[in-house]
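Subgroup meeting minutes
Present: P.N., E.W., G.H.
Scribe: E.W.

1. P.N. recapped why we're keeping a running log of single-chain structure predictions: easier to compare across weeks, and new members can see raw inputs and outputs side by side.
2. G.H. added today's entry (274 aa).
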Amino acid sequence: MSTETKPLQPSQVGVIGAGVMGEALIAALIKFGMKASSICVSEKRAERAEELVNRYGICVCDLAQNVGGSDVLLLVVKPQDMASVLAEIKGSIKAGALVITFAAGKSTSFISSHLGTDNPVIRVMPNTPMVMGRGMSAMSLGGAATSDDQNWVKKFLSKAGEVIVIDESLQDAVTATSGSGPAYYFAFTEAVVGAARRLGISQEDAVTLASQTLIGAALMVEKSGKELKTLRENVTSPNGTTAAALKSFADSGLEELVYQAMKAAHDRSIELSS
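Output recorded in log:
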């Protein structure tokens, strides 16, 4: 990482891709203090772009115009589309513009090599709770990125949740932990709802019971100051109902099942790097 720093004060931020994550990032930028008129989005779906203009007051630009005029570029595209997007923008990108990639599996070196420039690059793995302002983002700096670039990105992302800075070699593991993580909790909660239904509880009540339990347990993890082990033990009376359920989980190999699922996500992230 370069030791020379220059405060980052972008006059225009370009957002390439305006799906759910792109919108969450737009909202975070505005909350961070960027003027809506200084945020320009490039989106293939005209109706989606119009929706965001009406909701946030941002600008819509064609791709070349956006890339050429932006001091910071947010690449919020699918991993499989990244190479073609980079090929399209590499001749237009502004010298010195900070490029931030949010695509799973795509390294800073991948971005730099496909751009063929020395623009600073930062890689971020976010997750979908960002849309609620409670996301988890892990960021890694490419070789040309400065500490000021890092500080600006970290402050902006903090408007949508928590942010950590990690070595890029861990990004695939982060993808498997927090990037894909929300789906694990959704799937588990679906399973709890299904089990409750089989035990005679109505669909509506099962969803309320399961979802509120998930929310309450998460708040206890966040706010109690207690370790996960302690929180679990506090609910588990010897030979009680919780102990019976946890024994069933253990007998079914829950820990190994979770590891294998996360390893599959980790390995797929590596596959997406090519």
